[in-house]
Amino acid sequence: MRSALLSLGSILLTFAVVGNAYYQKKQFYPSVVYITKSNPSMGVMYIQAFVLVLLMGKLMRKIFFGQLRAAETEHLIERSWYAVTETCLAFTVFRDDFSPKFVALFTLLLFLKCFHWLAEDRVDYMERSPVISWLFHVRVSSLLVLLGIMDYFFVSHAYHSTLTKGASVQLVFGFEYAILLSIVINIFMKYILHSYDLQSENPWENKAVFLLYSELVMGLFKVVLYLLFMTIMIKIHTFPLFAIRPMYLSLRAFKKAVNDVIMSRRAIRNMNTLYPDATAEELATVDNVCIICREEMSGTGSSKKLPCNHIFHASCLRSWFQRQQTCPTCRMDVLRAPAPTPVQNIPNIPPVGVPGSPPPAPQPQAPVLPNWPGMGPGFVPGAFPGMFPFIIPPVAPQPPVLNADQPVAQQNATQPQQQAGPTGGRANGSEGSAASATPSASQNQQGPNAAPMLMPPFPMPFFFPPPPPIPATDLSSLSTEELEAMAGQERENLEARIRCLRNIQTMLDGAIMQMQQYSSLIASRNINVNTNQSTTKNSNPTMNGGHPNNPSSDSNEELRRRRLNYLQGNRNSGPEENREQQG
């Protein structure tokens, strides 16, 4: 509706301008001269030309595309804003050549760019559409031929104009139409490949390869054109600011094409060498329908199993890896190297019963803490010395009894291992006793089979002194690493205790300060109350038959004074004042 109103308004304005010029000059040529010399008349003519371009665009869209899809309209509007911005920047660069012809050429360039973008989106739609009619083929083929002819014509025109008249604005139009011609060639190649794939009964496996390499070649061609254009423009004119964005997009597209070629070849090589063929048993246990082509798979070597245990057709995977290198189902990266399987080095140890075989080495076990009644999940034995003095440390486990028919050499080899256990336990116990100075250090000597000591059935008083700490072992027998570890643990424990004491001191200071504030606040409120009462008594000395020296009022004041003195810590002031009053 708005476009119709705009068209009608522009037509009425154009008729008014032409009629006014002819009414004043009475002849055709003087009327044309009058219109070209009048700025308002030229403005109306420019608006009419813009409306004619829009109407021509709608007519061509109806002929070659029919109804545009939502995605095509969105892409057209998004790209048109950038194209208009680049055109305005080009006007600033070529402000000396600014003329109606220059504006018309840039408008025509923008007009043809829009149809190139629409043709690219429509050909890409062929791959996603299951049914393609003959009208679609007629429209696309005729549009591509028309765009190719126009691009070639403008390229040749710019070339001859540059040779005859020298470097001018036609150089810019020549490079722009050359890039559009490369886009038309790329679209035409895609159209041929999609059409051949639609005519074949089975999916064409090599289509993705041709598409990938065609995009790579055309991307390289556009990058070379933009580099050549930038070099020529900087040399003969100035820096082309309007060409920065399209050149960057071309470089990024070319880099993506190169990366896709490398990654796809690597993924296909991994598929052919690393991934096994799916067997009939594996296909029977899972769904044997390939989610890429929606056809059933057979166990004749035509299916591949990915590391994520998903199975697809080998041909479908090859086409899929041309576009993206992930699993179609779980999106796992197929280029990621599989994690190496850890191989456990199992020594070749003969059985224990064989004569001459060494005895099995005892496995180190973590010390098991006793499960005392009332112990929470975060309870640490020895954290509060003197709290549970009646709990007796568990007894160390007894050495195992050897068989009578065991060789003597094996018994001698077992004894040092039994002696090493209590020694290590005493070392650990010395560390614990030095850190906490409590008898809880002997808990590290507890074996896995030791029974925990339970609380006695009768109540025990908690004021008994704790038992003396177990004396530490000889530190000279410890190694340098053990001494350094023990020193580090001792220092960490000491620093933790100091930090805890400082936190307690800070909390106590804060509590004392709050109590002082409370006391001062209560004292100030009592003083205000006493002042108000004394003022009331002085103003009404005989109120309610009272007297300023009434004993009841003195007793109330004395009670308040005692409360205040009690809060301030002067507990002895009350009795002294009572004795004075009694005296």
UniProtKB/TrEMBL annotation:
The record's subcellular locations are: Endoplasmic reticulum membrane
Q: Which domain of life is it from?
A: Eukaryota
Pfam family of the protein (one): TPR_SYVN1_N
| Pathway recorded for this protein | Protein modification; protein ubiquitination
* Endpoints of the signal sequence: 1-21
**Which biological process annotations from GO are given for this protein?**
ERAD pathway; proteasome-mediated ubiquitin-dependent protein catabolic process
Q: Which GO terms describe its molecular function?
A: ubiquitin protein ligase activity; zinc ion binding
According to its record, how does it sit in the membrane? Multi-pass membrane protein
State its Enzyme Commission number(s): 2.3.2.27
Which chain regions cross the lipid bilayer?
A: 43-60, 102-119, 131-155, 167-188, 208-229
Residue ranges, compositional bias (Low complexity):
409-421
Supply one GO CC term from the record.
Answer: endoplasmic reticulum membrane
InterPro entries this protein is in?
Answer: HRD1_E3_ubiq-ligases, TPR_SYVN1_N, Znf_RING, Znf_RING/FYVE/PHD, Znf_RING_synoviolin
- Bias category Polar residues: which stretches? 430-447, 531-554
The alphabetized UniProt keywords are: Endoplasmic reticulum, Membrane, Metal-binding, Signal, Transferase, Transmembrane, Transmembrane helix, Ubl conjugation pathway, Zinc, Zinc-finger
Region (Disordered), start-end ranges: 409-455, 531-583
**Would the keyword Zinc-finger be found if you checked this record's keyword annotation?**
yes
Q: Tell me which residues make up the RING-type domain.
A: 290-331
Provide the top EC class: transferase
Family from the record: Belongs to the HRD1 family.
Q: What is this protein called?
A: RING-type E3 ubiquitin transferase
Identify the species of origin.
Caerostris darwini
